[in-house]
């Protein structure tokens, strides 16, 4: 059975792919600042995910800042974000529930200490991605691109189209 956090990570994977595909359609000649902004946001997202992966594994953090001066090309960002999403989902699927609630101590980039459960870290990454995909959506708007519908409700109904039909269930579904 898929846990709620696993389903949310599947949503993140789906939404990230839609955003990456849309960003790839931005014309870099006519909209250089919009594609640069989208790349910077994606770079930040994946760097944060790579740092939290190290925290989840108890290994050395690969970055000392949440962004970098040199921003990778979209192709590299897509590969890294896809790999991160795959890893996060496998981690959630293979980690026992009692381990998911265990707390991890770490230090944020600003030097402040933090403590979160593994499940809270995964939820943070789902939520963090949502925030930055929204910012990228604005760049897509400015570039005249098609902003993909990437909300959780769209995902749920795309994955489970039978949820669109309430016939026969109106007495059990609060409206």
Verbal overview:
- The chain is mainly alpha-helical.
- It has one domain (4-164): Four Helix Bundle (Hemerythrin (Met), subunit A).
- Helices cover 59% and strands 6% of the residues.
- It has six helices and two strands, in the order H-H-H-H-E-E-H-H.
- It has helices at residues 4-23, 32-57, 74-94, 97-100, 118-142, 152-159, and strands at 103-107, 113-117.
- It has a two-stranded antiparallel sheet.
- Strand 1 and strand 2 (113-117) form a beta hairpin.
- The longest helix is centred in the N-terminal third of the chain and has 26 residues, at 32-57.
The SS-based structural class is: mainly alpha
Gross CATH architecture: Up-down Bundle
Number of domains: 1
Listing every helix as H and every strand as E from the N terminus to the C terminus, the arrangement reads: HHHHEEHH
Range of helix content: 55-70%
How large is the radius of gyration?
Answer: 18 Å
By CATH, the topology is Four Helix Bundle (Hemerythrin (Met), subunit A)
* Beginning-to-end CA distance, first to last residue: 27 Å
Organism: Pseudoduganella violacea
Family: Belongs to the DinB family.
Protein name: Putative damage-inducible protein DinB
Binding site for a divalent metal cation: 44, 128, 132
Q: TL;DR of this structure?
A:
The chain is mainly alpha-helical. The protein has helices spanning 4-23, 32-57, 74-94, 97-100, 118-142, 152-159, and strands spanning 103-107, 113-117.
Which descriptors would you attach to this protein?
single chain; metal ion binding; Putative damage-inducible protein DinB; Four Helix Bundle (Hemerythrin (Met), subunit A); 175 residues; mainly alpha
């Amino acid at each position: 059975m898929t846990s709620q956090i696993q389903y949310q990570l599947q949503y993140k994977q789906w939404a990230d792919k839609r955003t990456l595909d849309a960003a790839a359609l931005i014309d870099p000649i006519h909209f250089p600042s919009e594609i640069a902004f989208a790349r910077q946001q994606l770079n930040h997202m994946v760097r944060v995910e790579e740092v939290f992966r190290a925290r989840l594994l108890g290994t050395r953090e690969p970055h000392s800042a949440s962004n970098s001066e040199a921003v990778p090309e979209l192709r590299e960002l897509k590969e890294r974000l896809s790999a991160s999403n795959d890893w996060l989902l496998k981690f959630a699927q293979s980690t026992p529930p009692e381990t998911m609630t265990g707390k991890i101590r770490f230090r944020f980039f600003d030097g402040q200490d933090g403590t979160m459960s593994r499940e809270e870290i995964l939820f943070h990454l789902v939520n963090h991605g949502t925030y930055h995909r929204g910012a990228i959506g604005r760049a897509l708007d400015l570039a005249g691109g098609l902003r993909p519908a990437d909300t959780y409700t769209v995902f749920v109904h795309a994955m489970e189209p039978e949820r669109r039909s309430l016939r026969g269930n109106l007495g059990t579904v609060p409206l």
